[in-house]
Amino acid sequence: MIASAASFRRGCKISFMGTPPRPGLASARRRLSFRRRGPGAAIPFPCTAPPLDVKTYVAKPSDRQRDWVLVDARGQTLGRLATQIADLLRGKRKPEYTPHIDTGDFVIVVNAEQIHVTGDKRSAKLYHRHSGYPGGLRSRTLAEMLERRPEEVIRLAVKGMLPRNRLARQQLRKLKVYAGPDHPHEAQQPRALEETGT
Known about the structure:
Helix content: 25-40%
Radius of gyration: 29 Å
Low-confidence stretches: 12-16
CATH architecture of the largest domain: Alpha-Beta Complex
Number of strands: 6
Strand order of the largest sheet: 5-2-1-6
Number of helices: 8
Mean pLDDT: 84
Order of helices and strands: HHEHEHEEHHHEEH
Number of domains: 2
Structural class: alpha/beta
Shape: globular
């Protein structure tokens, strides 16, 4: 039996008669070439290390656990809060995270109208939409959006931090945003964001 480089990668400790053991793949190649040069020059002992059995965990829709998380947007910075919400929706901070399975939680955001932004973004940041007709481009500033539709400000910020695919659109439907402090999800017993440790 001639030892191969794969056996060294598996962690086998092979001792050769007449050759002191040296760690590493390069020394294994040297010993194998020495074995081929002379008949009977080096005789390896059989490898007794068990093979590694490491399997990657893949979550299933049947065994996933979805919680409800309550987020208070009062005084929070828009972009930093949106990154935390996007991670919660995708389940990125769970050990069972699987990229192609929706393992994230439901997120309830209250006090969306009291979100905080830095600099002059209230007047400089623009939200565009188009009617589809020529000359149908319409724009609103962040201040106007917070006055008319504050829920849409957070929803668009989170949407921009999710992938562009069907799974992300499904995860975005788990986001519930409300302008004031009240929400109709008391029956789900949501936990505060600070209690989740994220």
